[in-house]
Amino acid sequence: MAAVGEAMPALVLPDPHGKSVDLAQLAGGRPLLINAWASWCAPCVKEMPELDRFAAAQGARGVQVVGLALDSAQNVQQFLQRVPVRYALVLDTPGPADASVRLGNRAGVLPYSVLVGADGRILRQKVGPFADGEIERWIGAAAPAAAQIQTRD
């Protein structure tokens, strides 16, 4: 299980259509916000519009957002028809060694978020949902690494 300061574990997971996604490549040298969720998790669903808003505001050099669905592809596809999001999604099967656990989610609680710096190291971990407007403050609190987030090419 990864902890703050450690390198993000190598994660290659399928997207909702079955295509493999390497999270390190997806980040493309940018900071990465990984949010573990499930379609049946009410707090997860409630925070998704906030994550979508944040992701859309990032532009080409900002934080890359990815949703890590601990759910079935069928459930996620049905969910996205009701609640579309513009950020990338990957899937994993919930369990004692799922990707959220490997990212430090020891309790297995959802939602669970991880901020990975542009250098691939874990900067912050959060159990529970983001409130409206909280994501920017949470990421900003990762200073001095937050400075990299704003200026990294």
From TrEMBL:
Keywords: Cytochrome c-type biogenesis, Disulfide bond, Redox-active center
SUPFAM superfamilies per UniProt: Thioredoxin-like
Statement: the UniProt record of this protein carries the keyword Glycoprotein: no
Chief place of localization: other
Compartments where found: Cell envelope
Secretion signal span: none
Domain Thioredoxin span(s) in chain numbering: 2-144
PANTHER family in the record: THIOL:DISULFIDE INTERCHANGE PROTEIN DSBE (PTHR42852:SF6)
Name of the protein in question: TlpA family protein disulfide reductase
UniProt source species: Pseudoxanthomonas winnipegensis
